[in-house]
Write a structure and sequence with these properties.
This protein is of the alpha+beta class. Helix content is about 30%, strand content about 25%. The strands form three sheets. Strands 7, 8, 9, 10 and 11 form a five-stranded antiparallel β-sheet that branches. It is elongated, with a radius of gyration of 47 Å.
Length: about 260
C-alpha cells in the first residue's frame, strides 16, 4: 500500500505512514447478513396485530346501561324544565301569538290613534271653500293618489261669488276611508317582542313587562309614499307598546289591566 501524502511504501496493516505520519485509509467493515437482515424493513409477517379496545364487563352490565339511559332522560328533563323556568324562555315564539290576540281585542281607538288621520271628516266626495285650511290635507292626498285633482265650482253671484273645491276619492283612497278617517293600513301586527324588565313575584303569579314592536298590516297604496310621514306626522308605520305578561299555573297570558 502507498501513502497518499508522500507516496512511500507502507505495510497493508499499518494505520499510519512511517515516513510522514499520515493516517492510512482503512478498509470498510462488512456487516454480517444476519445483522443486516435485522436492520432492514420488517416483513408483513413480523408486524404485531392491531390492538383492539375491549369494553370492560362492568360497562356491559344491564344495570349500568339502564342507569346511563335513565340519567340521559333525567338530564333532558332538567334542561327542558330550566328553559321553562329561566327568563330566556319568555321569548318571541312564546309571547308573539298571545300579544297578537291581545292587539286584535283592543278597541278601534287603540290602532286608529296612530294609524288614521281625522283632521278632516273624510268622505268619498268633499266640497270645501277655497280658503278652507282643510284643503291642505286633501291636496297632500291628491299627490299620494288617494284623491283626484280638485274640481272648481263657482258659488253665488256678484260680490258674493266664491270658489269651492270638490275632492273625489280614488278607488284606493275610498278603500282607506273608515268612519270619517283615512287610514294607512288595516291594523298592526306584532313584529318583535322585547323583554324589558325582570320577573316579579306577586303571590302565586309571576309578572313580566315586555315591549311589543308593532308594524302595519296590509298598508294602503297611498301610505307607501315617502312623503306620507312628513305630511301626516301622527301616522306611524311602527310603534312600541308595553304589556304586562302574567304566568299562572305554568301558562303565560297578557294582563287584562
Amino acid at each position: 500500500m502507498t501513502c497518499p501524502r508522500c507516496k512511500a511504501a507502507v505495510d497493508d496493516k499499518a494505520r499510519f505512514c512511517g515516513a510522514c505520519g499520515a493516517a492510512m485509509p482503512q478498509p470498510p467493515v462488512s456487516i454480517p447478513n444476519a445483522v443486516s437482515a435485522r436492520i432492514g424493513p420488517p416483513d408483513d409477517e413480523d408486524e404485531p396485530p392491531p390492538r383492539r379496545w375491549v369494553v370492560p364487563a362492568w360497562l356491559r352490565s344491564p344495570a349500568v346501561l339502564a342507569g346511563f339511559g335513565g340519567g340521559t332522560v333525567l338530564l333532558i328533563a332538567l334542561v327542558l324544565l330550566a328553559r321553562w323556568l329561566l327568563p330566556d324562555s319568555a321569548s318571541v315564539a312564546r309571547f308573539q301569538p298571545l300579544l297578537a290576540d291581545a292587539i286584535r281585542q283592543q278597541p278601534a281607538a287603540f290602532a286608529e290613534a296612530t294609524l288614521c288621520d281625522r283632521s278632516v271628516d273624510y268622505q268619498p266626495r268633499l266640497e270645501l271653500d277655497a280658503y278652507d285650511t282643510r284643503r291642505r290635507a286633501l291636496e297632500q292626498l291628491v299627490l299620494f293618489g288617494a284623491y283626484e285633482k280638485p274640481q272648481l265650482k263657482t258659488v253665488g253671484d256678484g260680490w258674493n261669488t266664491r270658489t269651492h273645491l270638490i275632492f273625489v276619492a280614488t278607488p284606493d283612497g275610498e278603500a282607506a276611508l273608515r268612519h270619517g278617517a283615512i287610514c294607512a293600513a288595516e291594523g298592526y301586527v306584532v313584529r318583535d317582542v322585547l323583554l324589558t324588565g325582570p320577573r316579579q313575584k306577586s303571590g302565586k303569579l309571576t309578572l313580566m313587562q315586555v315591549q311589543a314592536v308593532l308594524e302595519w298590516q296590509s298598508p294602503k297604496p297611498w301610505a307607501r309614499d315617502p312623503g306620507m310621514s312628513k305630511a301626516f306626522p301622527n301616522i306611524q308605520p311602527s310603534r312600541s307598546v308595553l304589556f304586562t305578561m302574567v304566568r299562572e299555573h305554568g301558562h303565560w297570558r297578557v294582563a287584562s289591566d
